[in-house]
Amino acid sequence: MPRYKNPRKTWQYSADFKVKAVELSYQDGIQVQQVAVGLDIHPMMLSRWRKEYREGKIKPDGRKRVDVMKNKKLPTAEELRELDQLRRDNARLQKENDLLKKWQRYLADRHQSDLDSSRNTDDN
């Protein structure tokens, strides 16, 4: 395996970002998983932030990192629901596609076996 010379990049999020993510996850009808996917963070990280928020360890500090939230906005509840629906639809379509591929292979194998058996009867 190749040796890595540089240390692994660790993402650091501002307290304001964490607070906004936690507050978004506490909204009615929104699940932690949806918020985590929308913000591109691991759900366990968001759960840990929620615990730290409840314990008072995370508070908004007022400082802003310009490059973190420059052009990004938190997804709305409707956007998260739509994304969740699109993911479910995509999974369903992938399953249908896999089933069609299996059916096509089955038909091709069956056709090939029919050809092989007809050749064997012609040879006799």
TrEMBL record:
Keyword tags: Coiled coil
Pfam families noted in UniProt: HTH_Tnp_1
GO biological process per UniProt: DNA transposition
Matches recorded under InterPro entries: Homeodomain-like_sf, Transposase_8
Any one GO molecular function term: DNA binding
Coiled-coil spans in chain: 76-103
Homology family: Belongs to the transposase 8 family.
Protein name: Transposase, OrfA
Phylogenetic placement of the source organism: Bacteria, Pseudomonadati, Pseudomonadota, Gammaproteobacteria, Oceanospirillales
